[in-house]
Amino acid sequence: MRPEIQKSKLMVIKIGSNVLTKEDGKPDLARMASLVKQVSFLRENGKKVILVSSGAVAFGRKEITLPEKIDPILKKQIWASAGQIELINTYKNLFRELGITISQILVTKEDFRDRKHYLNMKNCLLGLLSQDIVPIVNENDTVAITELMFTDNDELASLTAAMVNADTLILLTNVDGVFDGPPSDPTSKLIPHIGTKMPDLDHVISPIKSSFGRGGMLTKLSMAKKSADLGIQVLIANGKKENILLDFHEKSITCTYFEPKPSKQSPKKWLAHGDQYFKGEVIINEGAKTALFSQNISSLLPVGILEIKGDFSKGDIIRILDVEGNKLGLGRAEISSKTALETIGQKNQKPFIHYDYLYLFNHV
């Protein structure tokens, strides 16, 4: 028995490629129309909604036939470039029939790395919502290269939900949620509730990725865990089911529900996803480690730093390690690497990472 779904005011809904495509890979326009009507219903019932939508590549594949020998990344860029126009126009026409205005926001990982850029993007999204506009977010596949790509749109949705301080994240896929075995196996059972003390489920999750997207259930599980840790309730549900978002509103939805922890401060939500964006590392001593993980509010001071790696500027994200190489957390550097090297190990210095910009992992 899972806890009751919490009331939602600001939600991010991710619609996966397999939800918006038929078995032959062509866009499922009827499914899109149904989901748009359900989003409209949620809005009428007082909820602000941001959509993170896949599907550009599927729309592009429908429009353009490319030779097999073309580089896979270039092929995807071409399809995404052409398909994004068709995808957003389809959304525009469907929402316009219901009297709703939409906007398009295309992003890359770089947009989340810089704190100032991140806040500009956050202000834009909140500004659109304040004007009763539905933002539709997607990865800018046309300019993203492999090392800068999101794992998939589950990661983008999780980042977006943290950015705007959403209370709810719904990941719509083509299965009912997380199962204790392969979903295709009739003996596998749906896991309806994952609590704040989350078990390790990686061994029961199929590593198979979707036919038309980059991600799989392992990514969804990882992003759901991270979002729930930040205080966001997360649901993984089947977007192919009729009226799935209405079922959410009625609290009768079949899904895997991730129970949220207490909400964290906005800067910590930004840092929580920074493990791929860090510009440098610091190795700290046992005294600093004990202080950071104590019940007292503690910043990371230069006196507790043993070693500094990397060339970074003030404001960059830094990863914190102990002497054994364990990853302890992430933080925003208050000084550059050059200045940090001059103060390493010294007492009576300003914090290297202030507590307000410090995010600690939970495994210690």
Automatic annotation (TrEMBL):
GO terms for biological process: L-proline biosynthetic process. It catalyses: L-glutamate + ATP = L-glutamyl 5-phosphate + ADP. Pathway: Amino-acid biosynthesis; L-proline biosynthesis; L-glutamate 5-semialdehyde from L-glutamate: step 1/2. ATP binds at residue 14. Substrate binds at residues 54, 141, 153. Residues 280-353 form the PUA domain. Coiled coil: none annotated. One of its GO terms (cellular component) is cytosol. Signal peptide: none annotated. Keywords: Amino-acid biosynthesis, ATP-binding, Cytoplasm, Kinase, Nucleotide-binding, Proline biosynthesis, Transferase. Catalyzes the transfer of a phosphate group to glutamate to form L-glutamate 5-phosphate. Belongs to the glutamate 5-kinase family. This is Glutamate 5-kinase. The gene is proB.
